Amino acid sequence: MWLVILAAIQRERDELLALLDVQERQRYEATKSHPSQDDQAYNNFTSAEVKWTLLHAIRSLQFTNL
Questions:
Q1: Whole-angstrom Cα distance, residue 4 to residue 10?
Q2: Which pLDDT value is given to residue 47?
Q3: Are residues 30 and 46 in the same domain?
Q4: DSSP annotation of 45
């Protein structure tokens, strides 16, 4: 009896997870095809600027954790 109930709960969980996956995929596709202005602003940085910013952030973290 308990195994049947457990199996039904697991099946329901799997169906809900599948539904959430579909909804998340739809949200991703909607935002991927229509980038926001904020996303476009990030695309204007050069790789050197990104590298310098990351190095600076890492150094800041290292000094704050001493």
A1: 10
A2: 78
A3: no
A4: S
Query: Would you mind telling me the total number of residues written for the chain in this entry?
Result: 66
Are residues 26 and 44 located together in one domain of the fold?
Answer: no
CA separation for the pair 64, 66 (Å, rounded): 6
Range of the domain at 61: 37-66
4 and 22 share one domain? yes
Q: Hey, what amino acid is at 12?
A: E
The alpha carbon of residue 30 and the mean position of all alpha carbons in its chain are separated, in whole angstroms, by: 14
Residues 17, 52: Cα–Cα separation, whole Å: 40
Which tens digits make up the pLDDT trace of 8-47? Answer: 888 888 888 888 888 888 887 777 766 566 666 666 777 7
